[in-house]
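If your schedule permits, I should be very grateful for your opinion on a structural question. What I wish to show you is a protein chain and, alongside it, a tokenised description of its three-dimensional fold. Would you kindly read the sequence against the tokens and tell me how you understand this chain to fold? Here, with my thanks, is the record as I have it:

===
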Amino acid sequence: MTPPAPRPLSVVLAGGGTGGHIEPMLALADALRRRSDDGEPVRITCLGTARGMETRLVPARGYDLRLIPPVPLPRKPTLDLLRVPGRVRRAVSETRALLEELQADVVVGFGGYVALPAYLAARRGGSGRTAIPIVVHEQNALPGLANRVGARLAARVAVTVPGTPLHRGEHVGMPLRTAISTLDRAARRAEARAEFGLDADRPTLLVFGGSQGAASLNRALVGAADALTAAGIQVLHARGPKNTDVTVPPRPPGSAPYVIVDYLERMDLAYAAADLALCRSGAVTVAELSAVGLPAVFVPLPIGNGEQRRNALPVVEAGGGLLVEDAALTPAWIESSVVPLLTDPAALAGYARHAAAAGVPDADERLADIVVAVAR
């Protein structure tokens, strides 16, 4: 009589809300699915809320999404803070019932509204009251409240940025899509530049400010367009889909192209086309650039708790990029600092080597190793 097949490991991933939580969650899911395809059966379920980007992104990648109530935490003391305990109790109760239904072997949280109830529900366990082990992954150099709580309850705590102040954090890196983590920029350069209508052999600057663009980056680059063109530098500039007023006059015939797009669907090709990026320093952006060895000028978002600056510092301190404050990013600064770098192939190559040395392209597999070990 043939023995029954072993029950697949049931892995529950909690990382809804923003792309910064969802993308590493899906990269881990992909790594776990590859193991399942190789004969190590894993059942993957993602938790999210009805208000987050996960309602679109998770099903599009082929994963089961189950919705739980969100638990937003007010940033300042307000009357809304009084409603938080009731919201937490409801979310934890519903999440606990869901974990029991799924027979969860491990809960992996990435922070945000979804993670906190998942951590607390896993701690309480199922009907047998046995706690479900937790793995925490923190993307940013400054952890949020949910992951600070989760780290105290977790079996393992993984961080993206070395030195992240999180209880028992171990440096693993940022899980990335394989289209990025396995990118050979040199091998794809000709294809990538042709895709965007760029010349094959000019120094190339990639500019982007996140999915919606960044007004200060747009202003500075448009103001520096003539200086860049005069130096023979071509530009691929993602202005953001709402910023249709951001334009550059046509370049003179035979001069370096300045290509403006609303949004970059193929970031892998954009990275392959470029010699240098100028961008914000969100956690995923910093991790992707270092993983592919593309040096960058990081312009941290000038609001919040300073986490974008901290995200970029390890790469900058390793010699893989520059950092300029938002208020200091002017056309004159670009002309005096970016143009000389882009026209110095030896300096660019040095920055690229240091950027690659700071990257962790196999973070998805490292985190998958941790998750499977904890689940077992």
Remarks:
- The mean pLDDT is 92.
